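User: If only I could read backbone structure tokens as easily as an amino acid sequence. Underneath my words sits a plain record pairing an amino acid chain with its backbone structure tokens. This is the protein in question:
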Amino acid sequence: MACGTARPSTAPDVDAPVAIDTAQPPDAQVIEELEVQGLGVQGFTLRYGGDTVLTAPLFTRQGTVEVGLNLPLSADTAAIDAGLAGVGLSEIRAIVTGHAHYDHFMDVPHVMELSPAALTYTNMTGRNILAALAPDRPDGCTNAPSPVIDRQRVIALDDPLASHVDYTNCPDQAPPGVPLAGSWMAVPNSHVRVMAFCSMHPDQIGPFHFGLGSIDTEQCELPAAASGWLEGQTLAFLIDFLDEAGDPRFRVFYQDAPTNAPIGQVPAALIAERSVDLALLCVGSNDAVDNEPTAIIENIHPRFVFSGHWEDFFQPRSSPPQPIVFLDVNKYTTRAEAALPGPADRPLVIDGMPSNVRHVLMQPGTHLSVPMRP
């Protein structure tokens, strides 16, 4: 049930300086690679130096019966623990997810419980859902939160009282009085900053749109069934990993869902300032929008593209990954590769082997190293 009303943002001040560790020798070796691991679906770890950013983790697997019949479901904590084995949990500084469907958000609370330094950057719906776990919930909430997640660890970038979202390419989505230009938000105690962009989520099956809508009040309980995890305002992200001077060393674009251009794209001025090294794109439902992934690749001109969210996540994790039913993955891959002509400027390292490819269809468990630009 819903309790109380949405609260003012408790997000860190965007004008606050990014926390930079300057206590290193002047001749310290520059790290030349961004380490990436595919976690399955749209989950990735991005690690540079001692900072890790995690995207939309999903290790829980639910069957079509449970989801289709709207039966109760909950996060599989054992699967999350196993899926994050080998990930430096103490180094996770940020979790980013651009909407609050169960396949992007249901596992987030347990990941936050395992990662005490991590903040989650999401939308208002996501913040209102996770308010169910705050220690200072409204008086009407009588159940005990589990796990307990401090509300200051959950940042709604589309909070109209403290918006950081760039609405340049979809001004009709902007709440009244909110500036159209976005702003960077520094991730505390890290060399990372994020900026969000208004985006969209297409229909999943023909005209059917699962999880449409938003949650506008703080909750007392996490949603019981898949249909309760409403999407809210869909967002895309730029994620910058910074050097000691605060300049981008690697720039990553993260897409939570494919879109119709120009929605979900990055304004040209930001790309002119610093182009994208790596784009993390979403294959699922790309056939429900126009000209993807070509349009977004032409918008951001990434050096590399890693594509996820193509697997049928109704299958057990122990099964070999299979494409989402009726999803033409080969057609998507052909378009992605055609939009990325020429070899890589420097080779990727994929599971220890150098490669000149620029597009990778991500498999769960794949490790990659993205080289610094020449």
